[in-house]
Amino acid sequence: MFNLIVLPYAQESLEPVISANTISFHHGKHLQGYVDNLNKLIQGTEFENKSMEEIVLSAPNPGPIFNNAGQILNHNLYFEQFQAPSTQTYEQIKAAAPTLAKHIETQWGSIEAFKKEFETKGATLFGSGWVWLSAKEDGTLIIIQEPGANNPLRTGKDQFNATLKPVLTFDVWEHAYYLDYQNRRPAHLSALWNILNWKVLESRLNN
Ligand code: MN
Question: In what helix (H) or strand (E) does residue 144 lie, and over which residues does it extend?
């Protein structure tokens, strides 16, 4: 039996980047719906007592159990990485996420170049899905577009024969931004950097 996560901030605290209205539907309706669906689907199955990660790694993909578990895992990582908006200088980002910032600088040359690739991969993902920053076992970072409910945990196992550690994700399903930005997905994605909690990303990388 899984429960809806409690947000680490008030619904209105991400405004104006994400409105309280969007959070109320996205967290309170969409994510709640995935939790309710999964709890019904796993009843009496081999997945009933597994962790979310175990279900994501082992359920038939595509399939309803994978789809709902994937969406729950993805949304939990998504919602837990945000904080109230602020202008963060590169010095502040480096202080909050020293290891991550160093890897980004080594691989992309600058945080701006990294953000540009991440946003472009989010903006150009066709239809619904997620853009992810993940770490390989050797610490190198990779940006991946995932359709639907897919995520790097499962993709690492199925396609890379490796463990990919999810560090950062932007949700590009229309329900994530349509109330606030309508069709302007790129504008929504570029605003998300202002609410990113780099300390959370650093702890995912080092965990
Ligand atoms: Mn979503």
Answer: strand 141-147
Instruction: Give me ligand 1 centre to Cα 109, in Å.
Output: 31
Q: How many A from CA of 35 to the centre of ligand 1? A: 13
Eight-state DSSP code of residue 29: I
Distance 106 CA to ligand 1 centre (A): 31
- Among 206, 17, 42, 189, smallest CA distance to 118 is for 189
| CATH class for the region spanning 19-80 | mainly alpha
Is the pTM for the entire model greater than 0.90? yes
Q: Is 143 helix (H, G, I), strand (E, B) or coil?
A: strand
Query: 181 by DSSP, 3-state: which?
Result: helix
- Superfamily name and number for 90-206: Iron/manganese superoxide dismutase, C-terminal domain (3.55.40.20)
- Provide the residue ranges of all domains of the chain, joining segments of one domain with +: 19-80, 90-206
Give distance in angstroms: CA of 91 to centre of ligand 1: 31
Cβ contact 189:145 at 8 Å: no
Helix and strand element counts for the chain (H, E)? 11, 3
Question: How much distance in Å is there from the Cα of 107 to the middle of ligand 1?
Answer: 29
CB atoms within 10 A of CB 140: 11
How close is the Cα of 76 to the center of ligand 1, in Å? 10
pLDDT digits (tens, 9 = 90+) for 152-187: 999 999 998 889 999 999 999 999 999 999 999 999
Measure 26 CA to ligand 1 centroid, in angstroms: 6
